[in-house]
Amino acid sequence: MARIRIGAAALGLALLVVGGAARAQETTGRLTGRVTDEATGAPLGGVTVIVAGPQGEDAVVTGDKGEYTFTSLPVGTYVIRFYAANTSTAVEQSGVTVAAEKMVRVNAKIAAAAAAAPQQTYLIVGKPPTVDVGSARVASQFDQTFTLNVPVGRTFGDVIERAPGAFVDGSTNVSIGGATGLENIYLINGLNVTGLRFGNLESGAATIGGGSNIPIEFLTQIDVNSGGYQAEYGGAMGGIVNTVLMSGTNEWKGSAFLYASPYWLAADPKVIIPVGSSLTGVRKPDFDDSLGVEVGGPLIKDKLFFWAGFAPRITDSHILRYTYAETEARDAAGNLTGQPVLGADGAPVVHQLGDWTAREPETHRTYFYAANLDFIPRPDNKLTLTLVGTPSFNQELKSQYGLNSLASDPRSALEELTKVNTDVNAHWTSKLMDRHWQIDAMAGMHNEYYYDRSPYADLNNLNEIQYGGTDLGTMENAPGCAVNPVTGFAPCPVNPYYQTGGFGLISKSSAYRWSGDLKSTHIFEAGGHNELKYGYHVDYNTFDLSRWYSGGSFEQAFFPNNQQGLPGGLYNTTTYFTLGPGETPVQYTTGMRPISNLQPGAPGVMTDYRYTLDTSISSLANAFFLQDSYSPNGLRNLTINAGLRLDLQRLNDLNGNSIFSTDDLAPRLSAVYDPFNDGRSKVSVSYGRYYEAIPLDVAARYFGGENFIQTFGFTSTCPAGLQNAATWAGNNESRQCSPTLGASPVFNSEYAQSNMQGQYNNEITATAEREVLEGMTVRLDYQHRWLGNIIEDGYGPGFANGVLANPGNVPQSAINTAQAQVNNAQMAVTANPMDPAAASALAAAQYNLGTLQTLKDAPPPERTYDAITLSLNQRFTKNWFARASYTYSRLIGNYEGLYQTQTNYIAPNGNNTYDAPELYVNQNGPLPNDRPHILHVDGFYSHELGRGRVTLGLSFSARSGQPRNYFGNLEPGTAYQVVMLLPRGSAGRTPTVTELNGKIAYGRALGPKMNLEGFIDLFNMFNQQTAVVTDDNYTFDAAPPIANGTASDLKFAKNTSGQRIGTNPNFGQPLAYQAPFSARLGLRLTF
Amino acid sequence: MKRPFPRYEVLGLTAALALASSCSPNNSVKPGAPVLTELSVLEPGAYGPTATTVTASTLTCPAGTGEGGPCDPAATTAVCEAVITNNLCRCLAAPATVAAPLALTDAGADAGADAGAASDGGADAGVDAATPPPAAGKWSCSFAPTSMVLYVFDRVLDTAPLDPGDAAGLMTLATSTFVPPAPGIALLGDYASNGSPNEVIFPLLGDFRSAGPNILFTGLPTLPTSRTVTIALDKTKVLAKDGRTPFTGSNLLMDGIISFITQPFIAIVAAPPAPAAPADAGADAAAPNPLPDMTPATITFSNTVDPTALAVTVTAVPPATGFLFDVASTDGLNVTVTPRTTWPASSMITITVPATTTDLAGDALGTAATATFATSAM
Known about the structure:
The complex is a heterodimer.
Chain A: H1 2-18, E1 28-37, E2 48-53, E3 56-61, E4 67-74, E5 76-83, E6 90-98, E7 103-105, E8 108-110, E9 121-123, E10 138-143, H2 144-147, H3 156-159, E11 167-168, E12 174-175, E13 185-188, E14 191-192, E15 219-227, E16 240-245, E17 253-262, E18 279-300, E19 304-326, E20 328-330, E21 336-340, E22 350-352, E23 358-378, E24 381-389, E25 392-397, E26 414-432, E27 437-453, E28 464-471, H4 472-476, E29 493-501, E30 505-525, E31 528-549, E32 554-558, E33 570-577, H5 585-589, E34 609-610, E35 612-632, E36 638-652, E37 658-673, E38 681-691, H6 697-702, E39 707-714, E40 742-747, E41 751-752, E42 760-773, E43 776-789, E44 792-794, E45 803-805, H7 812-831, H8 836-856, E46 863-877, E47 880-893, E48 899-900, E49 905-906, E50 925-926, E51 933-945, E52 948-959, E53 967-969, E54 979-980, E55 993-1007, E56 1010-1019, E57 1027-1030, E58 1033-1038, E59 1070-1073, E60 1078-1086
Parallel strand pairs in A: 1-7, 1-8, 6-9, 13-16, 28-32, 41-45, 53-58
Antiparallel strand pairs in A: 1-4, 2-3, 2-5, 5-6, 10-15, 11-12, 13-14, 15-16, 17-18, 17-60, 18-19, 19-22, 19-23, 20-21, 23-24, 23-25, 24-26, 25-26, 26-27, 27-30, 28-29, 30-31, 31-35, 32-33, 33-34, 33-39, 35-36, 36-37, 37-38, 38-42, 39-40, 42-43, 43-46, 44-45, 46-47, 47-50, 47-51, 48-49, 51-52, 52-55, ...
Helix pairs in contact in A: 7-8
Chain B: H1 7-21, E1 36-43, E2 50-55, E3 59-60, E4 70-71, E5 79-81, E6 88-93, H2 108-118, H3 125-130, E7 137-140, E8 142-143, E9 148-153, E10 174-179, E11 186-192, H4 201-204, E12 214-220, E13 228-233, E14 257-262, E15 267-270, E16 297-301, E17 313-317, E18 325-329, E19 334-339, E20 348-353, E21 369-374
Parallel strand pairs in B: 3-5, 8-14
Antiparallel strand pairs in B: 1-2, 1-9, 4-7, 5-6, 6-7, 9-12, 10-13, 11-12, 13-14, 15-16, 16-19, 17-20, 18-19, 20-21
């Protein structure tokens, strides 16, 4: 013990020297309270307070003011006993719920020694308080009372959206507090398991990995912090989702569970029939089954506890591809016209060909596992070791380029995707100096492995080919789709592209986050009660990413073969290249170097051409914090939390050089007042600044050497057998065509502004909460968040390459630095005007300066969130459990955040918002995550029935639709659909989405400690398949915005050719519907 | 029951929060009169139109401004309005003298001679070769009759008076005056609601209308040649979104009136290009003649020619019996004359565009345009 104390003291000393602090959330809770004389109300010192919980007992003695505090209590339900000095009298409060990060106040009144009856135990009949009186957090907690009795999904990621004001946004992650789904931090037992590349959580989406997401049975608590958190927490501009893994207790406990969602218990999804393309389809489930077991108990009573869980989940589904054909119209004389028959709405009339024309099987296999070891050598020391893994093996329809992947050869539409996350964590806690000093140390590792390729080996060696302007008759010789050889009418057009050949972009990556955390907490009296905490947190992140095109490149060909008088159809070939030493993008965009230098196979430049693009980038995030929770003498029911956090982040490029470093100070201040000092009410206010933890994608994409080159040509230049591109098989046929027309590079080699400041939100919260009935609290929250600064890339005059900056807030010092770089480059040119490298450097420096100036003058980013939430929480009392919340909020601004809804673009800190000054126009308005009304009602009723117990659960949600817009194209011939033709939100909203889920369970005891429950969960009981996303592309023409215009101005908008813009026939049509009704059967054996 | 919180504080807080959270931006068009920010004459160019733009800061022309006179293209008056006639003039940069590239140290005699021709000749020719002097300019106060006129505004306009239905534009948005008169010529106005001063990409894409909401006027069928053209925007048609407030502007843009002179109707006939001289031909060798093949001769008109009045004649000496040719054009400005078989070999060919040839505005050339060339032997 002495050795431990010395070691802990040394650790604490080191902390004092280093500074201090952390990102890891607390996984334990606190109890505090005051013991008074029942008769006089005077505080009673010397009262022994003993808590008995899942991992044994703990005890403290009240001080002079009758106060006591327990820290670091494992999550669970406790019994507290108060023993007055010199008597055998005890007062007992049972059913005290300890939750992570929460401070619950339990006061007691007991008879003083003289009045006490001997050997008497007084039971406090009333329920203990549940209000968190220690902090101003805006938070929601979900324990297994909720997750196992309310109909929710299988993982904690499915539970988060039940928090007030939360919902799943287009990123497939949960929006919290107006932020996009990529701005949260996810923790399991204090370890940050957030996705390293994109900042997301694994949600089962195709062609993307994410942070570790595990089943609800593995977690004892899911804590969703939506705002107001203290200085020790950082890295999130949305919410911090803190989950606590199950732990072993002094009692062996466990459960085995089985879930089955068969296809015959699911309704058919709605089919979207797009205008102008004959292909569509739906995903239909086959089954979604999971089974698992989790068990925990004491290896050594009161000292060593073990818990482990294993839960495979197997999900099969299939995509049915449907084909619709148009009918060729005839003129008055009965001759075929080459045009389709049009309906009353002006769209071609279509008819379905057969039932389905392709069936694409999907399989998902995920083997969740987790284990936890708690070692308590002494009551004041604890070591927790955690292991979590989510290996996942999938075959599914890939998500490609934002295009409809169904418009594909069925074989090339599928991906084989391996995603393996592994998390390891060790956490040590020591309490010293009669528990007035606590030290927490944590070290952990989060790893994500990702490999995306074709399930068919041959397709990994062929070029992927996209055909534009083609049809199923040509590509698949599909029955009913034959092209009329006389009129050229193609009954089954495919838009925008038909994909076949090889797999396309193959991607393999491995990312690590090495985390360390050291915290020191001091509890002392100095003008009041103080809890001073300081600490240090470090994350070292690495990301190794390899990408290559199957067959070495990606091919596009356009039909018909003779269009616009051109000699044969156009083709283009895309591949990666890297710039040579000393080369800059500006050299090529200004003509200083011929583009032909970049063409694959050009003499002497083969080194520029890459079949495989490998990059290794990294980042280092250090954080220090100092905070104090202070309750003044005479007003101990007031807690003032003041803190300061310093976030230091550095991103490194593929050569290990710093891209930029930020040093950001984040102040936090809050006050919490318990007006009746009974732990049953509070009012609180808080202010804080929250910086983003920058995901690694921006470094990998824009500082990892990623550049593309497209070469163009006519198929008429190909050898005789290859002039019809429809005959290409993906064997690099375009390489046999010559000469090319030219080449077009896309440079993702960016310049980073100097003196970069981090991206952050400011926030003010105000809360009032009161326990109005036994176990029922009513809470009113106000949250106001506004954006302070962002990191985004943008382009300037010349549109050469991106510049990463603080748009709208570029500091003058950065302009000065860029100007100095121009001056230096100018001097180099003057000194040696013959040196092309010097001239190139000057051009690059001038471009960077010009772009920085453009970004400096750009409108500052705005994203303002105002929300009022009224919530009610009824903990499980008298057979009832309920929680309900209504949030009225507005989210207004010009910057969405790390996810861009319109283009479904997941490029944190590198999206399109500031790509061109044209995009600054019309941007201010209701952002995609603006959902004014969000209502959640969850609950269950449980009652004995016969020899068992029946439980009826319910979950209802309603939320406003998503604001809609009118989008146009920025660049002809691309999918750059980002021009806001009319002010943001002008196209109204998608419909309000409501969903009712239900649960019916019946359980029976099979023994004194064994219970078997069968249940059925019903999702979307009314099968409301409301449109959740609509096509907002008003036109595919490149067209400038109509500043402050209205819909009546659209008729007058012109494209870059001066013509009226064409309209997208699918504008306003649904692109996605709410998931249909489904049911899930289950069994749970608890022991 | 004790009230948990003071009533007024809670109510006040709730009301304040409700007010704060109900804010949303006003995206309506800015109230008030639309401001005319630019007025441009757009002349066709090889890479899209070339604009001569009048803004609120455009000044009247300096004294002595006249067609062909010297001027400084970088001056603030490089685009200006003539004092007496109110016609638009612009200073066109003379083609820059091309110096020998990177000739700082060894400009040499040739570079010096070239540079000297453009500047002052003399002893500092080497320096001139490295840093050529600013190109001098010449006043040009006439514009191509194929020009268009573009009015750019700072905000969107009331669309009701600007709606052409299914037509290509409206002929009622401006009044036009031609001196001397040109009966039958109208102006077609086309309104574009989109565009903004924040433009980087769209000009790169060749979009010359992207600087703001605009009205583009084109002559119907074309502007007349050798006229003083005055266009006045109709203040009763170009209104703010309120449907009442007419547009406004500052200085030269105040009334939306522009006046300029159109260039005369001329034709230039060019012989078919001759093949390049053989590499081993001496310096004194005569330039090769066009081949007796089907390479067309070209006629370039300064205004769109009336196809019904185009009667090109081709004569050959010695006369070529049965020689036939085709005259074709896709735009009415560039006409090709192509032999059905080949040009007669070893002949002197004369192509003539008669003086009576008229453009679509009805103006005749006045003088015949011809080109004579000799073809080589078969």
